Prior knowledge:
The protein has twelve helices and nine strands. By secondary structure, it is α/β, with parallel strands linked by helices.
Amino acid sequence: xxxxxxxxxxxxxxxxxxxxxxxxxxxxxxxxxxxxxxxxxxxxxxxxxxxxxxxxxxxxxxxxxxxxxxxxxxxxxxxxxxxxxxxxxxxxxxxxxxxxxxxxxxxxxxxxxxxxxxxxxxxxxxxxxxxxxxxxxxxxxxxxxxxxxxxxxxxxxxxxxxxxxxxxxxxxxxxxxxxxxxxxxxxxxxxxxxxxxxxxxxxxxxxxxxxxxxxxxxxxxxxxxxxxxxxxxxxxxxxxxxxxxxxxxxxxxxxxxxxxxxxxxxxxx
Length: 269
């Protein structure tokens, strides 16, 4: 406890300073404007098991909405339906501006960038692939600069990069097609706290500069508090709480939400 309360080593203090905390900064303001994502009464069944049960939410354009829950809560299945990687058993999803070219307007960034990047290709070829596929102007050099990577990474392969660098490459590749929506599926959960803080800062900067809309999938409430404007808490396939991040964190109305918040270690409150 003394290490957390009064760290003596600079490295320890830096780690604790970078760790997301439930009270680290002001809440993001309630978003305004037209919705970029509208999910209505989504249901997904697998062999009679209802993994998602009547889920509805909206995400305002240029804002971040978090889907929060433990493993098996249905949050990733919901995200896959929004991304059209899975068809709902019933219900609808509308993504503004994406009806004519959905694959371009909605991009995903995964938890494990190493698994989503072709290990045989250089970073330049990885980033240039979507530019070629969609016949778009743009350069890998500009995109790595956009995500604060040095130009010399273009000649490297994923195995030669750190975890944080690989995640920046994955983000650069997603940005190549100029999407409106990024779905971030546990995109920082595999990173150490210092790199995690840097990626979260990058995502916030990109959202401010490019007007991106994020659907952020996470089990980490401290991270969610930092990055999201609104939150849906999922449990057993249903949304049990929805609201602004400030309201959900300061005035939780569902017992399950209160349990999740109470489980956060005191050191990060």
